Amino acid sequence: MAGAGSTVDGMTTTAPPSSTTASPPLSASGSAALRLRTTALTAMTPIVWGTTYLVTTELLPPGHPLFAAAARALPAGLLALALTRTLPRGSWWWRAAVLGVLNIGAFFPLLFIAAERLPGGVAATMGATTPFVVAILSVAVLGERWSRWRLTWGVVGVLGVGLVVLGPEAGLDPAGVLAGLGGAGVMALGVTLAKKWGRPPGVGPMAFAGWLLTAGGLALLPLALVEGVPAQVDAGGLAGYLWLGIVGGLVAYTLWFAGIRRLSVTAVAFLGLLSPLTAAVLGAAVLGESMEPPQLLGFGLALLALVAGQVVPRRRPALERSLTPGGAA
To answer: pTM for the whole thing?
Structure first.
């Protein structure tokens, strides 16, 4: 029932909430220190996600990727719900379901299909297209202006990650490529819609992350049961599941969606380049994988694209008029 204290779009409030409650990106006159802190905290998420490959291959029981995905999402989501004691209301039931499926329930299976059918480097390069896709969706979904700057640096980011992770054995399986691009697409749409819809008034980032992790985990549960449960999980496997669920799930997604609310969605997407770069660094540091000069060059290009993606140069008025149909301002 709408009105004073309406619960249509989220928590009960004294005034009816608008359909979109996203906070705008921090203004240019805002605190640079606050923006930097928000960016740094948000960047922790893809860095943590970059540990997933190492944890999965070195600690988890092999052959159960969908079980690992469900174990990463569902317990963390239920824990968040227990800690925050906040459930969706009104339209946020279906919004949370949509965002949970896009960001987790559909993304994880596509990610694992790509990883199984493609060399790891090719799969990582497919995922690195997310900032480019977000730059396009931000125009179609959020009504933002075209940004040649971010589109260009999105391409540079893909090239950089490709140089870091692609090897001479890289092959292109059509189904794997479609899964990789599909994973990048659903993730890009998920973060763009999360920016468009924002969060209901009075709902914190952990509660919001809990909704999405629970919805995504429930979508993954049937797939995980079909795949089967590992016959045995040792202490290392338990530690791996706890790391992926608590740190890689609850903490990481809480920081991620808090960043999406405060920063430009395209800037947040560029931070995702840190994930394959972190995986490459851990591969070299822990597994003894080599880093050749082309990989170092790609690493630098990807970092440069990441930094460039955090800003958009101001357009000169004359240039803005020339890019507007009919020359109108």
So the answer is: 0.79
